[in-house]
Amino acid sequence: MSWLGGHGDASSRRSGTLTVLDVGSSKVCCMVAKLKPRDDGKLLRGRSHRIQVIGIGHQKSQGVKSGVVIDLDRAEHAIRLAVDAAERMAGLTVDSLIVNMTAGRLKSEAFAATINLGGHEADEADIKRVLGAGAKQAMKAEREVVHSLPVGFSLDAERGVRDPRGMVGDALGVDMHVLTGDAAPMRNLELSINRSHLSVERMVATPYASGLAALVDDELEMGAACIDMGGGTTTISVFSEGKFVHGDAIAIGGNHVTLDMAKGLSTSLDAAERLKVMHGSALPGSADDRDLVSIHPIGDDGDVPLQIPRSVMTRIVRARIDETLELLRDRLNKSGYGNAVGKRVVLTGGASQLAGLPEAARRILGRNVRIGRPLGVAGLPEAAKGPAFSAAVGLLIYPQMASFESHPAKGISGLRMTGTGGKLHRMSQWLRDSF
Question: Which residues form the SHS2 domain (predicted)?
């Protein structure tokens, strides 16, 4: 893989087809896209290709809870249906995909490594060597490296070097951001995909993918946090100077709000979900005590629904939302990247569509908050332009950034090669050559 992707001329970069799969707790989404090299000279930073979605399939998720596969058969079934629909729409067969992962107690760590240059110019091999040295420190038992990314290079005493190639010095140093996850949940996710006769090209952490899709260039550059609120999990990523510097995940999402409402109002999950979407809000309104909402309690087969004040519902929603946001605030402050984020937070993911959520987030996080939708991708149907599809779109953007990564070990998360020279081999080869 070339170390710096997408800076050659357009002729050296090739077009290709890319398939991504987002296996979430509430939906499974598969997208097939054509990537064409940009030749218009106006590159979005780090975006070397134009993305055109040509196939999309999404399904209600099954067998997945809080981002973890808990039932292989049901998860496989949902994945198969989503991929089939995307294949039919794109008119092609898929055999390997880029997949995101949320589970496995994602953990970000910073490492530094230095190698001796002895006064000569830094070249690709030196950069590989120093990245390898940084990534090696992160190999721990039972943990898999999901990403190992250079955050910045240093030459001798000069820090903040963006691209050290061709520069002269005695010591080349790198600061790495290494994100690791538990091996078992990753393996089970991969198993449920393999059982559908598909192979995993690469696993990408959900917070990284969502940030790539929902943050604009200025936010990436000046520093911002992206909070992706899904059904079963909420992830947070911090970007600074264009780099992904910190990631975290908590196993609380929109489904927990639904569950709280179902328990609190003793109604069914489906009814609670409907109430949440139609009337749910994280903001108490002035008319909430007068507004009545009708619910059908569980096991009550009477025709007359119960009328409850909307304020009862808002209190339940608000308690869970506040708790989630407080937890995120504490995680962010503990991470040491609170300053890097400054005042900018972008909310995305399906659960971010709850009424009043940006206001609640502003109050608790004490920062500016906006809702982020996936950016920079053509051909998305109207239904898939919302924040719920940020992670999937981010996976389409990811390969253009992947050239920065170093993979010390070709483990589950490394690019896996099938030596048969089959289609998978070509896809990996294309990914390697193009970026």
Answer: 18-214
Could you write out the DSSP letters of every residue in 159-217? EEES--TT-B-SEEEEEEEEEEEEHHHHHHHHHHHHTTT-EEEEEEEHHHHHHHHH--H
DSSP code at position 355: B
For residue 296, give the amino acid letter.
Answer: H
d(CA 259, CA 200): 33
Residue carrying structure tokens 């609120």: 229
pTM (2 d.p.): 0.88
Which residue(s) pair with 34 in the sheet? 17, 52
The number of C-alpha atoms within 13 Å of 33 and in the hemisphere containing its C-beta is 28
**Residue 338 CB: number of other CB atoms within 10 A?**
16
Helix, strand, coil percentages, rounded to 5, for the chain: 35, 30, 35
Phi, psi for residue 31 in degrees, rounded to 5: -130, 135
- Please give the torsion angle defined by the CA atoms of residues 128, 134, 137 and 139, in that order, rounded to the nearest 10 degrees: -50
- Of the candidates 45, 46, 50, 75, the one whose C-alpha atom is nearest the C-alpha of residue 60 is 75
Best CA proximity match to 379, nearest among 93, 92, 30, 55: 55
Q: What is the per-residue pLDDT across 326-374, written as a single tens digit (0 to 9) for each?
A: 999 999 999 999 998 989 999 999 999 999 999 999 999 999 999 999 9
